[in-house]
Amino acid sequence: MMAWSMLFGVVVAALAVAVAAAVDATGSVEQIHLSLTGMTTEMAVDFVSTNSSTCNVLYRPQGSSDPYSHAASTVGWHFSEIGFLHQATMKNLKHNTRYQYHIQCADGSSSQTMSFVNAPQREGGLKVAFLADFGLKNDVSIKSLLNASAHNEFDFLILGGDFAYDLMANHSQIGNAFMNTLQPLTSSMPFMPAPGNHEKKDNFTQYYRRFEAVAKNAGAHSGTNSSFFYSWDTDNVHFVAIDTEVYVFYNETQHSPHPFTAEQQLAWLEDDLARAHANRDNVPWIVMFGHKGWYMDFEPDTHHGLQPKPVTNFTGFDALANKYQVDLFLGGHVHIYQRFFPLLGLTPGLQYAKPRDIDKACAADDNHTYRNPKYMTTLIAGSPGDQETTLEGMCLGDEVVEPNIRGTMAECQPNYGYGIMTFPNRTHMHWEWLEVKHGDLLAGGDGDGVDVQRTRNDHLWLIRDH
Ligand SMILES: [Fe+2]
């Protein structure tokens, strides 16, 4: 009798330990970010489980009592500094419908319940935020961005390279903290990336693995199986991500988790743009984004009196962009805001960074409207904030200090901020540059970085009779 009760006690204690272990998971689910797949009935998600290789994403329309749908995840990579990097795809989603979802892992850890609107139909047209060169330190725009996304000011965010400064810094803790800082935004709306030079370390491994859901979904649907370069349609816009770093970091790219050559990217880009251009009746706008613009990354060779050598080689991108009449290019790398006049880019052998032609005639008197420009318009939005700060000295009034590209731009601003673009119809798109100052920078600010002042400091109507 005594032995029985002792055994019973042991069993109860063991069960209690087992239950406690299940509830008291030691791991966490974090760094959750959604991405578009190119299918309007799907939403992809990347996330990290610090402890578990087996997780499930459970989702259903918000407010519904339907049983949850399950999206099993796969692990693309396990790295002790980060955890298990999972990808999953939520499918059979209805348009313009809010879904709630949460993530459960085998170790008992789980996320909180989050939500997103699938394929939102916004009155007035699609709205997209763009920035590049965003660091964890001096992240001036972060509160404004999180606030703007919480207030539904845009439908998704594009980041054109140079993340966190850097993703792998301090044993990946900078990258982990950066992705967690953005999570309130990226778990509630898609986050679409392109690689920059700050992602080159370890052959771009961290960039590729942290955005592997993009490769497996948008990349797969656009024929690249890659998050380095890919495309997708949303509403009336064909978006194209390009990797401007392949020329500079050719060897790293060749040894990346998804190796490719500059020539392969250009061959894919030509095919993609040709199809998008032929599809203008259905999807009139083509917007390309990457890290560097047309005039960046030349190697001057003045000592030997030779022509400078193009490193990024935008000649390849620009020739295709103009052949297929890409409307807009968005980039960063220089930490300022620049709005160029539509221009025809470079040909090899021409003088350093000078465009072949500029279309200023398309600009209305106030310079805030480009009507039927002959060439692609370039916008550089590389100053949401990072540890390198803005390049104060690069602008001279509305102009740029660099003499070789003087006369090419309508605006040059060495301030912090980000852009939001709107696509109301097939002929008009609107861009706004939103300068951000947080409390630390404001006179009288209390230094906690919470007080945010946002000012529209530039805008552009791009009008094209597609
Ligand atoms: Fe850069």
Walk me through what this model shows.
It catalyses: a phosphate monoester + H2O = an alcohol + phosphate. It comes from Salpingoeca rosetta (strain ATCC 50818 / BSB-021). Residues 1-22 form the signal peptide. Its EC number is 3.1.3.2. GO terms for molecular function: acid phosphatase activity; metal ion binding. A hairpin with a 4-residue loop joins strand 28 and strand 29. The protein is globular and about 60 Å long. With 466 residues, it is of the alpha+beta class. It has 2 domains: 29-121, Sandwich (Immunoglobulin-like); 122-463, Metallo-dependent phosphatases (Purple Acid Phosphatase, chain A, domain 2, 4-Layer Sandwich), CATH 3.60.21.10. A 7-stranded mixed sheet has the order 13-11-9-28-29-30-23. A 7-stranded mixed sheet has the order 14-15-16-19-24-20-27. Strands 1-2-6-5 form a 4-stranded antiparallel sheet. It has helices at residues 2-23, 142-150, 173-186, 201-210, 212-221, 250-254, 262-278, 314-323; strands at residues 29-35, 43-49, 55-61, 69-72, 74-79, 83-90, 97-105, 114-118, 126-131, 134-135, 156-160, 163-164, 191-194, 230-234, 237-241, 285-289, 298-299, 309-310, 328-331, 337-340, 343-344, 357-358, 369-371, 377-381, 395-396, 399-400, 409-413, 417-423, 428-438, 452-463. The protein binds fe (ii) ion.
From the coordinates shown, what is the CATH architecture of the largest domain? 4-Layer Sandwich
Largest sheet: 7 strands, mixed
Global geometry: globular
Radius of gyration: 24 Å
First-residue to last-residue Cα separation: 89 Å
Number of helices: 8
The small-molecule ligands in this entry are: fe (ii) ion
Report strand %.
25-35%
Query: What structural category characterises the helix and strand content?
Result: alpha+beta
Mean pLDDT: 89
Determine the fraction of residues in helical runs and give it as a percent range. 10-25%
Question: How many structural domains in the coordinates?
Answer: 2
Given as residue ranges, the uncertain stretches (5+ residues, pLDDT < 50) are 1-23
For CATH, the homologous superfamily of the largest domain is named as Metallo-dependent phosphatases
The strand count comes to 30
